[in-house]
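Open question from group meeting: does this chain pack into something compact, or does most of it stay loose? Before anyone orders reagents, we agreed to write out a predicted structure and look at it together. Recording both the input and the output here so the notebook holds the full record.
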Amino acid sequence: GTKAEPVATVQKGVDLAQAGDAPNVFIAQGDYNEDVMVDDAALYGAYDASDWSRDLDSNTTTILAATDSAVEISNDGRLTVDGLTLASESATSAVGIYGNATVTVRATRAKIALSVNTSEHLGVYVGQDANVSLYDVRIEMDATAGKNIAVYMPAGKLLTANMLTITGETSDDDAIAMYLNYTTAQIFNSRISLSSGLGKCIGIFNGDGSVQVDGLDLEISGGDDGVIGFYQLTGFLNMRDVSVELGDSKSEVIGIYQTDGIECTVINSDFTLGESTMSAGYGVYHAGVEFSTVTIINAAIDVAGAADSAAGLIVNQSRVFVANTSMNVGEADEVFGMNIGLGGTELGDSFILNSAVATAPAAVSDQLPLRIEQVTTRKSIHVVGSDLYGDSPDCLISADTDCVTDVSDVNACEWEFCAQAEGNLNVAPGFASDSGLHLAADSDLIDAGIDPSPFTPTELAPLMRVDIDYDLRPAGDGFDIGADEVTP
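C-alpha coordinates returned:
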Protein backbone atom coordinates (compact mmCIF):
# COMPACT_ATOMS: atom_id res chain seq x y z
CA GLY A 1 0.00 0.00 0.00
CA THR A 2 0.89 3.66 -0.35
CA LYS A 3 -0.32 6.86 1.28
CA ALA A 4 -2.32 7.53 -1.87
CA GLU A 5 -3.73 4.00 -1.97
CA PRO A 6 -3.47 2.43 1.50
CA VAL A 7 -4.46 -1.16 2.15
CA ALA A 8 -7.32 -1.97 4.50
CA THR A 9 -5.59 -4.18 7.08
CA VAL A 10 -2.39 -4.01 9.08
CA GLN A 11 -1.51 -7.59 8.15
CA LYS A 12 -1.69 -6.78 4.44
CA GLY A 13 0.57 -3.80 5.00
CA VAL A 14 3.04 -5.97 6.91
CA ASP A 15 3.09 -8.61 4.17
CA LEU A 16 3.77 -6.02 1.48
CA ALA A 17 6.42 -4.23 3.55
CA GLN A 18 8.27 -7.45 4.40
CA ALA A 19 8.35 -8.37 0.73
CA GLY A 20 10.02 -5.05 -0.06
CA ASP A 21 13.26 -3.41 0.99
CA ALA A 22 11.93 -1.33 3.92
CA PRO A 23 9.63 -3.21 6.33
CA ASN A 24 7.97 -0.03 7.63
CA VAL A 25 4.20 0.10 8.03
CA PHE A 26 2.50 3.46 8.63
CA ILE A 27 -0.97 3.05 10.12
CA ALA A 28 -3.76 5.61 10.17
CA GLN A 29 -5.80 6.29 13.28
CA GLY A 30 -8.68 3.96 14.05
CA ASP A 31 -9.43 0.47 15.35
CA TYR A 32 -8.12 -2.54 13.44
CA ASN A 33 -9.95 -5.69 14.48
CA GLU A 34 -7.30 -8.24 13.62
CA ASP A 35 -4.28 -10.07 14.92
CA VAL A 36 -0.96 -9.46 13.19
CA MET A 37 1.95 -11.84 12.46
CA VAL A 38 5.38 -10.38 11.65
CA ASP A 39 8.80 -11.67 10.69
CA ASP A 40 10.59 -8.33 10.53
CA ALA A 41 8.45 -5.21 10.63
CA ALA A 42 8.18 -1.74 12.12
CA LEU A 43 4.66 -0.53 12.90
CA TYR A 44 4.07 3.21 13.28
CA GLY A 45 0.67 4.50 14.36
CA ALA A 46 -1.09 7.81 15.04
CA TYR A 47 -1.33 9.05 11.45
CA ASP A 48 -4.22 11.09 10.07
CA ALA A 49 -5.69 9.21 7.11
CA SER A 50 -6.59 12.43 5.28
CA ASP A 51 -3.12 13.92 4.97
CA TRP A 52 -0.85 11.37 6.74
CA SER A 53 0.31 13.90 9.28
CA ARG A 54 1.20 12.42 12.65
CA ASP A 55 -0.03 13.43 16.10
CA LEU A 56 0.47 10.94 18.92
CA ASP A 57 -1.65 12.99 21.32
CA SER A 58 -4.71 13.30 19.07
CA ASN A 59 -4.64 10.24 16.83
CA THR A 60 -5.13 6.80 18.38
CA THR A 61 -4.30 3.67 16.41
CA THR A 62 -5.44 0.39 17.99
CA ILE A 63 -4.85 -3.20 16.94
CA LEU A 64 -7.60 -5.19 18.64
CA ALA A 65 -7.31 -8.96 18.40
CA ALA A 66 -10.04 -11.50 19.07
CA THR A 67 -7.39 -14.23 19.39
CA ASP A 68 -4.67 -14.54 22.02
CA SER A 69 -2.09 -12.05 20.71
CA ALA A 70 -2.48 -8.64 19.12
CA VAL A 71 0.95 -9.00 17.49
CA GLU A 72 3.00 -12.20 17.17
CA ILE A 73 6.64 -12.39 16.08
CA SER A 74 8.07 -15.46 14.38
CA ASN A 75 11.30 -17.17 15.48
CA ASP A 76 14.35 -14.90 15.10
CA GLY A 77 11.98 -12.09 14.13
CA ARG A 78 12.13 -8.38 14.84
CA LEU A 79 9.36 -5.98 15.78
CA THR A 80 9.32 -2.23 16.26
CA VAL A 81 6.15 -0.59 17.59
CA ASP A 82 5.74 3.17 17.94
CA GLY A 83 2.60 5.16 18.66
CA LEU A 84 0.22 2.20 18.85
CA THR A 85 -2.28 0.68 21.25
CA LEU A 86 -2.30 -3.13 21.31
CA ALA A 87 -5.23 -5.02 22.82
CA SER A 88 -6.59 -8.56 22.93
CA GLU A 89 -10.13 -9.70 23.62
CA SER A 90 -9.28 -13.38 23.78
CA ALA A 91 -11.49 -15.40 26.11
CA THR A 92 -8.53 -17.53 27.20
CA SER A 93 -5.14 -15.80 27.24
CA ALA A 94 -4.90 -12.11 26.34
CA VAL A 95 -1.44 -11.05 25.11
CA GLY A 96 -0.29 -7.71 23.73
CA ILE A 97 2.99 -8.79 22.10
CA TYR A 98 3.99 -12.44 21.76
CA GLY A 99 7.47 -13.31 20.53
CA ASN A 100 8.87 -16.74 19.80
CA ALA A 101 12.53 -17.66 20.41
CA THR A 102 15.40 -15.20 19.81
CA VAL A 103 13.17 -12.29 18.87
CA THR A 104 13.97 -8.60 19.20
CA VAL A 105 11.23 -6.26 20.39
CA ARG A 106 11.43 -2.48 20.49
CA ALA A 107 8.33 -0.64 21.68
CA THR A 108 8.21 3.13 22.13
CA ARG A 109 5.38 5.52 22.97
CA ALA A 110 2.97 2.61 23.01
CA LYS A 111 0.16 1.19 25.13
CA ILE A 112 -0.88 -2.39 25.80
CA ALA A 113 -4.42 -2.67 27.16
CA LEU A 114 -5.76 -6.00 28.43
CA SER A 115 -9.31 -5.53 29.67
CA VAL A 116 -11.20 -8.80 29.19
CA ASN A 117 -11.61 -11.06 32.23
CA THR A 118 -9.71 -14.11 30.95
CA SER A 119 -7.56 -16.87 32.40
CA GLU A 120 -4.45 -14.68 32.15
CA HIS A 121 -3.15 -11.32 30.98
CA LEU A 122 0.38 -11.17 29.50
CA GLY A 123 1.45 -7.75 28.27
CA VAL A 124 4.72 -8.73 26.58
CA TYR A 125 5.50 -12.46 26.37
CA VAL A 126 8.71 -13.59 24.64
CA GLY A 127 10.58 -16.86 24.30
CA GLN A 128 14.16 -17.97 24.80
CA ASP A 129 17.06 -15.53 24.27
CA ALA A 130 14.80 -12.58 23.49
CA ASN A 131 15.87 -8.94 23.59
CA VAL A 132 13.18 -6.47 24.67
CA SER A 133 13.37 -2.67 24.81
CA LEU A 134 10.44 -0.66 26.22
CA TYR A 135 10.52 3.14 26.19
CA ASP A 136 7.56 5.26 27.30
CA VAL A 137 5.28 2.21 27.25
CA ARG A 138 2.16 1.76 29.35
CA ILE A 139 0.82 -1.73 30.15
CA GLU A 140 -2.67 -1.79 31.67
CA MET A 141 -4.15 -5.03 32.99
CA ASP A 142 -7.73 -5.06 34.24
CA ALA A 143 -9.16 -7.55 36.71
CA THR A 144 -8.83 -11.17 35.64
CA ALA A 145 -9.89 -14.62 36.79
CA GLY A 146 -6.30 -15.78 36.34
CA LYS A 147 -2.80 -14.28 36.32
CA ASN A 148 -1.68 -10.74 35.57
CA ILE A 149 1.90 -10.58 34.23
CA ALA A 150 2.93 -7.41 32.39
CA VAL A 151 6.37 -8.50 31.12
CA TYR A 152 6.92 -12.26 30.87
CA MET A 153 10.42 -13.45 29.91
CA PRO A 154 10.74 -17.01 31.30
CA ALA A 155 13.99 -17.64 29.40
CA GLY A 156 14.91 -14.23 28.11
CA LYS A 157 18.22 -12.54 27.51
CA LEU A 158 17.99 -8.75 27.87
CA LEU A 159 15.35 -6.28 29.02
CA THR A 160 15.77 -2.52 28.91
CA ALA A 161 12.89 -0.41 30.22
CA ASN A 162 12.72 3.36 30.57
CA MET A 163 9.61 5.35 31.50
CA LEU A 164 7.62 2.11 31.70
CA THR A 165 4.28 2.22 33.51
CA ILE A 166 2.56 -0.99 34.64
CA THR A 167 -0.87 -1.08 36.27
CA GLY A 168 -2.77 -4.19 37.29
CA GLU A 169 -6.20 -4.60 38.83
CA THR A 170 -7.32 -7.44 41.10
CA SER A 171 -6.45 -10.96 39.93
CA ASP A 172 -7.71 -14.32 41.17
CA ASP A 173 -4.21 -15.77 40.81
CA ASP A 174 -0.66 -14.39 40.94
CA ALA A 175 0.03 -10.81 39.89
CA ILE A 176 3.60 -10.09 38.74
CA ALA A 177 4.70 -6.89 37.04
CA MET A 178 7.85 -8.47 35.55
CA TYR A 179 8.74 -12.16 35.42
CA LEU A 180 12.36 -12.40 34.25
CA ASN A 181 14.34 -15.63 34.19
CA TYR A 182 17.90 -15.96 32.87
CA THR A 183 17.60 -12.29 32.02
CA THR A 184 19.72 -9.20 32.45
CA ALA A 185 17.42 -6.27 33.14
CA GLN A 186 17.96 -2.52 33.28
CA ILE A 187 14.98 -0.50 34.50
CA PHE A 188 14.92 3.30 34.68
CA ASN A 189 12.42 5.99 35.68
CA SER A 190 9.46 3.64 35.81
CA ARG A 191 6.31 2.99 37.83
CA ILE A 192 4.50 -0.19 38.90
CA SER A 193 1.10 -0.28 40.61
CA LEU A 194 -0.59 -3.62 41.32
CA SER A 195 -3.87 -4.20 43.12
CA SER A 196 -4.35 -7.04 45.54
CA GLY A 197 -5.02 -10.57 44.39
CA LEU A 198 -5.84 -14.01 45.72
CA GLY A 199 -2.39 -15.29 44.79
CA LYS A 200 1.12 -13.93 45.28
CA CYS A 201 1.78 -10.33 44.23
CA ILE A 202 5.35 -9.55 43.12
CA GLY A 203 6.82 -6.42 41.62
CA ILE A 204 9.86 -7.91 39.87
CA PHE A 205 10.76 -11.61 39.84
CA ASN A 206 14.20 -12.64 38.57
CA GLY A 207 15.00 -16.33 38.64
CA ASP A 208 18.63 -16.08 37.60
CA GLY A 209 20.35 -13.03 36.22
CA SER A 210 21.10 -9.41 36.94
CA VAL A 211 18.66 -6.61 37.70
CA GLN A 212 19.64 -2.94 37.81
CA VAL A 213 16.99 -0.41 38.81
CA ASP A 214 17.52 3.35 38.80
CA GLY A 215 14.34 5.25 39.53
CA LEU A 216 11.22 3.18 40.27
CA ASP A 217 7.99 3.73 42.20
CA LEU A 218 6.58 0.32 43.15
CA GLU A 219 3.21 0.00 44.88
CA ILE A 220 1.32 -3.22 45.63
CA SER A 221 -1.88 -2.83 47.61
CA GLY A 222 -1.86 -6.40 48.95
CA GLY A 223 -2.12 -10.09 48.15
CA ASP A 224 -3.55 -13.07 50.02
CA ASP A 225 -0.60 -15.38 49.29
CA GLY A 226 2.19 -12.91 49.92
CA VAL A 227 3.46 -9.52 48.76
CA ILE A 228 7.07 -9.16 47.62
CA GLY A 229 8.65 -6.13 45.98
CA PHE A 230 11.72 -7.80 44.46
CA TYR A 231 12.11 -11.59 44.36
CA GLN A 232 15.40 -12.99 43.05
CA LEU A 233 16.57 -16.58 43.26
CA THR A 234 20.21 -16.05 42.31
CA GLY A 235 22.22 -13.25 40.79
CA PHE A 236 22.86 -9.53 41.16
CA LEU A 237 20.33 -6.96 42.36
CA ASN A 238 21.27 -3.28 42.40
CA MET A 239 18.87 -0.40 42.96
CA ARG A 240 18.95 3.33 43.45
CA ASP A 241 16.18 5.90 43.92
CA VAL A 242 13.54 3.23 44.43
CA SER A 243 10.37 3.70 46.47
CA VAL A 244 8.47 0.58 47.55
CA GLU A 245 5.08 0.55 49.27
CA LEU A 246 3.54 -2.83 50.04
CA GLY A 247 0.12 -3.48 51.55
CA ASP A 248 -1.03 -6.11 54.03
CA SER A 249 -1.10 -9.85 53.39
CA LYS A 250 -2.14 -13.01 55.16
CA SER A 251 1.22 -14.43 54.09
CA GLU A 252 4.68 -12.82 53.94
CA VAL A 253 5.31 -9.14 53.21
CA ILE A 254 8.89 -8.61 52.02
CA GLY A 255 10.59 -5.69 50.31
CA ILE A 256 13.50 -7.68 48.85
CA TYR A 257 13.70 -11.48 48.93
CA GLN A 258 16.94 -12.87 47.55
CA THR A 259 18.09 -16.49 47.80
CA ASP A 260 21.59 -17.51 46.67
CA GLY A 261 22.19 -13.84 46.00
CA ILE A 262 25.60 -12.77 44.78
CA GLU A 263 25.10 -9.06 45.34
CA CYS A 264 22.39 -6.86 46.82
CA THR A 265 22.89 -3.09 46.70
CA VAL A 266 20.27 -0.57 47.88
CA ILE A 267 21.05 3.15 47.62
CA ASN A 268 18.84 6.15 48.41
CA SER A 269 15.68 4.06 48.53
CA ASP A 270 12.72 3.67 50.87
CA PHE A 271 10.56 0.68 51.78
CA THR A 272 7.21 0.90 53.57
CA LEU A 273 5.71 -2.49 54.36
CA GLY A 274 2.22 -3.39 55.52
CA GLU A 275 1.44 -6.08 58.06
CA SER A 276 1.75 -9.82 57.58
CA THR A 277 -1.24 -11.06 59.55
CA MET A 278 -0.30 -14.76 59.53
CA SER A 279 3.40 -14.93 58.53
CA ALA A 280 6.60 -12.83 58.39
CA GLY A 281 7.50 -9.27 57.44
CA TYR A 282 11.04 -8.40 56.27
CA GLY A 283 12.43 -5.25 54.72
CA VAL A 284 15.36 -7.03 53.07
CA TYR A 285 15.96 -10.79 53.20
CA HIS A 286 19.23 -11.94 51.63
CA ALA A 287 20.60 -15.47 51.67
CA GLY A 288 24.00 -15.31 50.04
CA VAL A 289 26.60 -17.55 48.52
CA GLU A 290 30.34 -17.66 49.02
CA PHE A 291 31.85 -14.16 48.78
CA SER A 292 28.50 -12.39 48.33
CA THR A 293 27.84 -8.83 49.56
CA VAL A 294 24.99 -6.67 50.88
CA THR A 295 25.32 -2.88 50.67
CA ILE A 296 22.63 -0.53 52.00
CA ILE A 297 23.24 3.23 52.01
CA ASN A 298 20.83 6.13 52.65
CA ALA A 299 17.83 3.83 52.94
CA ALA A 300 14.64 3.94 55.02
CA ILE A 301 13.00 0.60 55.87
CA ASP A 302 9.70 0.68 57.78
CA VAL A 303 8.11 -2.70 58.60
CA ALA A 304 4.62 -2.51 60.11
CA GLY A 305 4.88 -5.85 61.90
CA ALA A 306 3.92 -9.48 61.50
CA ALA A 307 2.26 -12.40 63.22
CA ASP A 308 5.42 -14.50 63.17
CA SER A 309 8.77 -12.78 62.61
CA ALA A 310 9.59 -9.19 61.63
CA ALA A 311 12.94 -7.63 60.70
CA GLY A 312 14.39 -4.70 58.84
CA LEU A 313 17.30 -6.74 57.47
CA ILE A 314 18.05 -10.46 57.50
CA VAL A 315 21.34 -11.66 56.02
CA ASN A 316 22.79 -15.14 55.78
CA GLN A 317 26.38 -15.58 54.61
CA SER A 318 27.31 -12.21 53.14
CA ARG A 319 29.56 -9.30 53.90
CA VAL A 320 27.37 -6.42 55.11
CA PHE A 321 27.88 -2.69 54.69
CA VAL A 322 25.06 -0.54 56.10
CA ALA A 323 25.49 3.23 56.38
CA ASN A 324 23.22 6.26 56.88
CA THR A 325 20.17 4.01 57.07
CA SER A 326 17.02 4.01 59.22
CA MET A 327 14.99 0.93 60.15
CA ASN A 328 11.78 0.75 62.14
CA VAL A 329 10.26 -2.66 62.89
CA GLY A 330 6.80 -3.19 64.37
CA GLU A 331 5.42 -5.87 66.67
CA ALA A 332 5.65 -9.60 65.96
CA ASP A 333 6.25 -12.84 67.83
CA GLU A 334 9.97 -12.15 67.36
CA VAL A 335 11.44 -8.81 66.29
CA PHE A 336 14.87 -8.01 64.85
CA GLY A 337 16.22 -4.71 63.62
CA MET A 338 19.04 -6.51 61.83
CA ASN A 339 19.70 -10.24 61.97
CA ILE A 340 23.11 -10.92 60.44
CA GLY A 341 24.52 -14.39 59.95
CA LEU A 342 28.09 -14.74 58.72
CA GLY A 343 29.48 -17.93 57.23
CA GLY A 344 33.21 -17.24 57.50
CA THR A 345 33.81 -16.89 53.74
CA GLU A 346 33.00 -13.18 53.51
CA LEU A 347 35.45 -10.88 51.72
CA GLY A 348 36.39 -8.58 54.58
CA ASP A 349 34.68 -7.16 57.65
CA SER A 350 31.07 -6.02 58.02
CA PHE A 351 30.10 -2.45 58.95
CA ILE A 352 27.05 -0.77 60.50
CA LEU A 353 27.69 2.97 60.39
CA ASN A 354 25.67 6.03 61.35
CA SER A 355 22.41 4.09 61.19
CA ALA A 356 19.25 4.13 63.32
CA VAL A 357 17.46 0.93 64.30
CA ALA A 358 14.22 0.87 66.31
CA THR A 359 12.25 -2.22 67.32
CA ALA A 360 8.82 -2.75 68.88
CA PRO A 361 8.07 -5.42 71.51
CA ALA A 362 8.07 -9.11 70.69
CA ALA A 363 4.97 -11.02 71.77
CA VAL A 364 6.59 -14.44 72.24
CA SER A 365 10.32 -14.57 71.57
CA ASP A 366 13.20 -12.08 71.41
CA GLN A 367 13.23 -8.37 70.62
CA LEU A 368 16.73 -7.53 69.36
CA PRO A 369 17.85 -4.35 67.58
CA LEU A 370 20.93 -6.27 66.38
CA ARG A 371 21.54 -10.00 66.30
CA ILE A 372 24.79 -11.49 64.99
CA GLU A 373 25.62 -15.11 64.33
CA GLN A 374 28.90 -16.31 62.86
CA VAL A 375 30.38 -19.70 62.08
CA THR A 376 33.88 -18.60 63.08
CA THR A 377 34.97 -16.54 66.08
CA ARG A 378 36.72 -13.91 63.93
CA LYS A 379 36.24 -10.35 65.13
CA SER A 380 34.73 -8.92 61.97
CA ILE A 381 31.85 -6.60 62.96
CA HIS A 382 32.17 -2.81 63.21
CA VAL A 383 29.26 -0.88 64.76
CA VAL A 384 30.04 2.84 64.85
CA GLY A 385 27.97 5.97 65.44
CA SER A 386 24.63 4.17 65.32
CA ASP A 387 21.48 4.17 67.43
CA LEU A 388 20.28 0.77 68.68
CA TYR A 389 16.89 1.22 70.29
CA GLY A 390 14.17 -1.13 71.39
CA ASP A 391 10.98 -0.85 73.39
CA SER A 392 12.15 -2.99 76.34
CA PRO A 393 14.48 -5.17 74.23
CA ASP A 394 15.93 -8.46 75.44
CA CYS A 395 19.37 -7.28 74.28
CA LEU A 396 20.70 -4.33 72.32
CA ILE A 397 23.11 -6.74 70.66
CA SER A 398 22.88 -10.51 70.75
CA ALA A 399 26.09 -12.13 69.51
CA ASP A 400 26.41 -15.89 69.94
CA THR A 401 25.89 -16.37 73.70
CA ASP A 402 26.55 -12.71 74.57
CA CYS A 403 23.58 -10.49 75.38
CA VAL A 404 24.53 -6.83 75.75
CA THR A 405 21.87 -4.68 77.40
CA ASP A 406 23.85 -1.51 78.15
CA VAL A 407 25.13 0.79 75.41
CA SER A 408 28.36 1.36 77.33
CA ASP A 409 29.10 -2.36 76.96
CA VAL A 410 28.23 -2.11 73.27
CA ASN A 411 30.82 0.64 72.86
CA ALA A 412 33.35 -1.28 74.96
CA CYS A 413 33.16 -4.19 72.47
CA GLU A 414 31.91 -6.49 75.22
CA TRP A 415 30.32 -8.88 72.74
CA GLU A 416 31.42 -11.69 70.48
CA PHE A 417 32.69 -10.91 66.96
CA CYS A 418 33.27 -7.22 67.78
CA ALA A 419 36.10 -5.62 65.82
CA GLN A 420 35.13 -2.03 66.61
CA ALA A 421 32.33 -0.25 68.47
CA GLU A 422 32.21 3.40 69.43
CA GLY A 423 29.91 6.41 69.50
CA ASN A 424 26.74 4.32 69.57
CA LEU A 425 23.52 5.44 71.29
CA ASN A 426 20.48 3.85 72.87
CA VAL A 427 17.78 6.51 72.53
CA ALA A 428 14.36 6.72 70.89
CA PRO A 429 15.18 7.91 67.36
CA GLY A 430 12.40 10.47 67.19
CA PHE A 431 11.06 9.66 63.76
CA ALA A 432 8.44 12.15 62.63
CA SER A 433 5.03 10.53 62.16
CA ASP A 434 4.06 9.58 58.59
CA SER A 435 7.33 10.93 57.24
CA GLY A 436 9.19 7.98 55.73
CA LEU A 437 11.44 7.76 58.83
CA HIS A 438 12.57 11.37 58.56
CA LEU A 439 13.65 12.86 61.88
CA ALA A 440 11.51 15.18 63.95
CA ALA A 441 12.95 18.59 64.70
CA ASP A 442 13.68 17.62 68.33
CA SER A 443 15.23 14.21 67.59
CA ASP A 444 18.25 13.23 69.70
CA LEU A 445 19.88 11.85 66.53
CA ILE A 446 20.45 15.30 65.04
CA ASP A 447 24.18 16.14 64.96
CA ALA A 448 24.85 12.96 66.99
CA GLY A 449 26.39 10.77 64.30
CA ILE A 450 29.71 10.22 62.60
CA ASP A 451 31.08 10.70 59.10
CA PRO A 452 31.18 7.17 57.64
CA SER A 453 33.58 8.17 54.86
CA PRO A 454 36.77 6.80 56.48
CA PHE A 455 35.19 3.33 56.61
CA THR A 456 33.72 3.49 53.12
CA PRO A 457 35.02 2.03 49.85
CA THR A 458 36.28 4.81 47.58
CA GLU A 459 33.58 4.38 44.94
CA LEU A 460 30.84 4.80 47.57
CA ALA A 461 32.37 7.73 49.49
CA PRO A 462 30.38 10.49 47.71
CA LEU A 463 27.14 8.92 48.98
CA MET A 464 28.20 9.61 52.56
CA ARG A 465 27.84 13.34 51.93
CA VAL A 466 24.13 13.25 51.08
CA ASP A 467 21.01 11.87 52.75
CA ILE A 468 18.11 9.89 51.28
CA ASP A 469 16.71 13.11 49.73
CA TYR A 470 20.15 14.16 48.43
CA ASP A 471 20.37 16.95 51.00
CA LEU A 472 24.00 17.63 51.83
CA ARG A 473 25.56 16.20 55.00
CA PRO A 474 26.29 17.55 57.52
CA ALA A 475 23.72 20.34 57.70
CA GLY A 476 24.58 21.24 61.29
CA ASP A 477 27.46 20.69 63.71
CA GLY A 478 27.63 16.99 62.89
CA PHE A 479 26.08 14.18 60.91
CA ASP A 480 22.54 13.16 61.80
CA ILE A 481 22.14 9.44 62.48
CA GLY A 482 20.08 7.54 59.94
CA ALA A 483 18.77 8.15 56.43
CA ASP A 484 17.64 11.74 57.01
CA GLU A 485 19.74 14.85 57.50
CA VAL A 486 17.58 17.58 59.03
CA THR A 487 18.14 20.84 57.17
CA PRO A 488 17.63 24.33 58.64
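Observations to bring back to the group:
The first strand starts at residue 24 and ends at 28.
Residues 10-465 form one domain.
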